[in-house]
Amino acid sequence: MAVQPGPNGRVKLNITRRSFLKAGATAGTLAALGRPTGSLAQKRPGAEIPWYRTGTIETTYNNCDMCPWRCGVLVHTVDGVVRKIEGNPADPKSRGMLCARGQGGVSFVYDPDRLQSPMIRTGERGDGQFREVTWEEALDYSAAKILAIRDTYGPESLAIFGHTSGDFWFTDYFAQAFGTPNAAKPSSSLCLSPREEAFKLMTGLAVGGHEPVDWDGLQCLTLIGSHIGEDARNTVMQDFSNAWARGARVVVVDPRFSSVAAKADYWLPIKPGTDTALLLAWANVLIDEDLYDAGYVADWVAGFDDYAGHVSELTPEWAEAITEIPAETIRTTARVMAENRPRSAIMPGRHVTWYGTDTQRMRAVYAINALLGAYGRQGGMYFNKSAYLEAYPHPPFAVAGSSGGCSAEPGEESDELPLGPSGKARADGARTSFLRGATAMQELIDPMISGEPYPIKGLVTYGVNLFNSIPNVPRTVEAVKELDFFLAVDVLPMEHIAWADVVFPEATFVERYDELWAVPYKTPFISMREPAIEPLYDTRPGWWMARELGIRVGLDNYFQWETAEEYLDKRLLSVGSSLEKMRAQNGVIVQSGKPYLEDFGEASPFTTTSARIELYSEDLAQAGLDPMPVYEPTEEPPAGFYRLLYGRHPVHTFAKTQNTPLLSDLYPENELWLNQRRADEEGVTSGDRVWLENQDGARSGPIKVKATQRIRPDAVFMVHGFGQQSAGLSRADGKGASDTKLQTRYKLDPISGGAGMRVNFVKLVKEV
Ligand code: MGD
Ligand code: SF4
Known about the structure:
binds ligand MGD; N-terminal domain of TfIIb; binds iron/sulfur cluster; 27 strands
């Protein structure tokens, strides 16, 4: 078995540093770009001089990289030091406001634990022994390794995993030019793929990055496991607060009394894994009591009779026995939703990979929205439209894109599975068109170990926290040991860095240009990122690394541009703009959308075969799968175990921010939510520290107990992203427990390729 970066096998980084801070040299450079500047002010006698009165304030345009939501921001520097990041009022997502993590961006940039220099491994994989090298040496070395893999096994044998807002350069541009279809993002198969696949099957459309709830006129919001407030997306919190203050009804379905459940009219503490039964029973009530929007259904919905027949026996009483929600509550909440239609919707949610039956659950969600007549109606769900922006005019790519993810733009996906130049398809086992657009990252691990269906011998990770995002960490470690080459591009010495052969330290989002972001939205818009300061230490932007590596592996034709400005200006020309013009219009280009049915005239917005929302899927039937959602029971916790649930915290994103000084101060370690009665039975109280052991014997901890009435007795809950083990992370190392390390199993969704991770169980261990 592979070395596991677990409690007893902590990996350490041992890096000799010779780099130094170069922040001071930038003000002149930026002034030359003609950006807005503030003015010096006088010191008042006796007063401490605040930063904004100490020098020249310069402002640059950016989008926040502290989570994938990417609110537009203004970055203020004083004499070349970033002092404040605030919301850009012109940006449709931030609207001049930020969440706590966005405010913490400055602290992330100046985290003293950052990676500072390119490095090549000197010890064994996992030892964390490196020597610092020049960029020239790191790039030449990496290119030689990648070329050797290509020449021996073919380009498909290089896998590229990417996340965060800069991943485009590696996971999309470099991967497609190089010719590997094995490029993947955790934001697809570990997050959104069931949601997107279900919507595509039913409507032919993409949900898109921003859940298109038409908040302005919304009168009833239903949340299935979406914990707004703890999942702290800035715009959603603003929208929710406004709707709630206006008196919109709120129904929350969650095994835990979440922050948003505290604001709800109805909290349904559902038995985990049974949501599809509830959704089918809601459909039963809407149809049985004639509460659905018959006119809308007649015009826009196909397969209604099939669906009505399908749910006719699935009564609230049937669902009560499964969900543990009283039948009367199921009826009442269905009526509340219907009273407010079409200004009533279930929000699609994010991170919907739960039980491996997730595409069918999402189809059941969309069926309710269709019965409420919500799609394309004011106050219901609007239609997203992508911002128009042409691609950079590069030569044809060697392979079509397949990485998927929250930033995938509708219309860019292809129904064809991409083939590499050697004629090999993706190695994740995807063989049906249902898996289009979302390479399953976790499914690329096995080919690294077994060599089947063909060997994957090289791995590049860009902004992916390898041992804190993919379930079954021991398997990932084993796979990494089998690789011929592993290049990690990151900003911090995360656990997986100790296993890399080469490390490219990246400049953070305020130190670099990045690809333009064309956002699918009600008012589609284009957002820009430009550097506020020069890269600290010996770090470089992702675009520069991808280009330098690309040129060294013979992809010169794709990298004809010399600078990021040149690349970006070329793209902006397609919308009659430029970086300079964007700066003059507050860093954003806003376009008009087509949010409602009436914007399409006689045409249908739905791109299914029937040009309607399809409740019955012919495609699924032909593939031998259920054409309508069916409730499938999930495995029960064994005696003495609890189902492991996990979620977000308002000041943290995934496993990325736990080391950020300001954010670590606010929430330094996670807690284990445990039902009070079960805590009494276990003999533990709030504040006690316990270890957790899962059904396969994997352990993580110690973690502080939070004994509470706010969670069901059959489940425990913790915030994702803690329990990291890397000595280089001075604040995050060893804090709390890791949900990922306790997820040795996942259940694959046969339709979307998503990895359901809530199929793991833990018990408490008081002494270790
Ligand atoms: P993070 O843990 O935030 O997310 O999985 P990841 O994408 O792995 O790790 C981000 C990495 O990017 C870190 O290593 C960070 O140091 C690095 N980074 C930060 N800024 C930059 C930068 O500017 N440049 C570069 N090159 N690197 C940077 C998220 C994924 O995890 C997702 S999307 C979901 S929804 C799933 N959530 C989830 C869960 O809730 N629980 C469990 N157990 N697993 C999960 N996996 C999935
Ligand atoms: Fe940044 Fe918060 Fe917006 Fe995410 S929601 S992009 S962390 S401000």
